[in-house]
């Protein structure tokens, strides 16, 4: 469960970084719900996807912090109900008699969806940085030829 959550989180970060110019460690340092909210604000996730990701995070916390937490049909049914459109439903495997396998299937479906989106969205092109530098140069105050900083 925890490993699945970490993988989903890595896919979420990769998706967000396709839309940031210089993400650095900014996204990595955010808490999971803030990453989900940022992806939504960037137009990368639909509301039901945010609900599924936040429910996954809550479930991960329950697993990690409550030793007596038990996986139930109700928990799995709740996840399945979050995937309401055909695009997402096609990634969800059919229910089995094994709750843990069902949970793995849902986590896999979330990861596949995030990965597919990341692959479809190319990162900001390298020439964008060059353009950014040209804009900064154009906006910089001009100096007389041959005059460096501190020589005026």
Could you write a compact summary of the structure shown?
The protein is an all-alpha fold and 152 residues long. The protein is 62% helix and 0% strand. The model has no long low-confidence stretch (mean pLDDT 80).
Q: Could you please describe the fold and organization of this structure?
A:
With 152 residues, the chain is mainly α. It has one domain (2-139). It is 62% helix and 0% strand. It starts with a helix and ends in a 13-residue tail after the last helix. The relative contact order is 0.14.
Features:
152 residues; mainly alpha; 62% helix
Q: What portion of residues is helical?
A: 55-70%
Rounded to the nearest angstrom, the radius of gyration is: 22 Å
- Secondary-structure class: mainly alpha
Strand coverage percent: under 5%
Overall strand count:
0
- Main sheet characteristics: none
The overall number of domains is 1
How is this fold's topology laid out?
Layout: H1 2-17, H2 32-41, H3 47-65, H4 73-82, H5 86-89, H6 99-120, H7 126-139
